[in-house]
C-alpha cells in the first residue's frame, strides 16, 4: 500500500483544520473510533473539537469543518452529515478509498487512502479482513496531520499536557 500512499495529500486537510472555527468528526465503527482518537489529539492542540452523535455536540455552521471517514464513501449516516454540513456552509474533508463515492463528491477535500474496500474479500490489496488496512492507514494519516499541526503550532509537550484528561 505504501507505494500508492501519498501523505502530501494531507496538506489541504491541515489547511482546512487551521482555518476552521470548530472541527467536527464523524465515522462509524472502527473508522469512527480512529476519528475520535484524532479529535482528542486536535483538542490537545487547543482546538475546539466535537464528535458527531455525542449529546453535547452543538450545531455545525459556516466556518466549521466536518472531518469524515468512510472506507466505502457510502456510509449513509456519514453521507447525510456531510450533506447537512455542506448545506449549512461548513467545509467537509473526507478520508475514503473511493474518490468517486457519494461522500467524496460532497467534499471540499478528499484524502484517498489506497486500501481495499471492506467488501473486497479477494485479498488483492490486503490479506487483512474487511476494512482493517483502511482503518490502520487512517490512524497513521490522522497522526501525521496532528504531528504536522503540532510542529507548526510550536508548542511543547508540556504546554499540551494540561489539556490531557484528568478524570480518568
Automatic annotation (TrEMBL):
Please state the gene responsible for encoding this protein: hxlB
Supply one GO BP term: carbohydrate derivative metabolic process
* GO molecular function list: carbohydrate derivative binding; isomerase activity
Q: Which InterPro entries match?
A: PHI/rmpB, SIS_dom, SIS_dom_sf
> Which residue intervals define the domain SIS in the entry?
13-155
Species in which this protein is naturally found: Cryobacterium gelidum
The UniProt family comment states:
Belongs to the SIS family. PHI subfamily.
Arranged from A to Z, the UniProt key words for this protein are: Isomerase
Q: Which residues form a coiled coil?
A: none
Task: Spell out the protein name for this chain.
Answer: 6-phospho-3-hexuloisomerase
The record's Pfam families line, in alphabetical order, gives:
SIS (PF01380)
**Entry-linked SUPFAM superfamilies:** SIS domain
Amino acid at each position: 500500500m505504501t507505494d500508492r500512499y501519498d501523505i502530501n495529500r494531507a496538506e489541504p486537510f491541515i489547511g482546512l483544520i487551521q482555518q476552521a472555527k470548530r472541527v467536527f468528526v464523524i465515522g462509524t465503527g472502527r473508522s469512527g473510533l480512529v476519528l475520535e482518537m484524532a479529535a482528542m489529539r486536535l483538542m490537545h492542540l487547543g482546538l475546539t473539537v466535537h464528535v458527531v452523535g455525542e449529546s453535547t455536540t452543538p450545531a455545525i455552521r459556516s466556518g466549521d469543518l466536518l472531518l469524515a471517514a468512510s472506507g466505502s464513501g457510502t456510509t449513509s449516516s456519514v453521507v447525510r452529515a456531510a450533506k447537512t454540513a455542506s448545506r449549512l456552509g461548513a467545509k467537509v474533508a473526507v478520508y475514503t478509498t473511493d474518490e468517486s463515492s457519494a461522500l467524496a463528491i460532497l467534499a471540499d477535500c478528499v484524502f484517498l487512502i489506497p486500501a481495499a474496500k471492506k467488501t473486497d474479500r479477494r485479498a488483492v490489496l490486503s490479506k487483512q479482513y474487511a476494512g482493517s488496512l483502511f482503518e490502520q492507514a487512517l490512524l497513521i494519516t490522522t497522526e501525521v496531520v496532528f504531528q504536522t499541526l503540532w510542529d507548526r503550532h510550536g508548542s511543547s509537550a508540556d504546554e499540551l499536557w494540561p489539556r490531557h484528561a484528568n478524570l480518568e
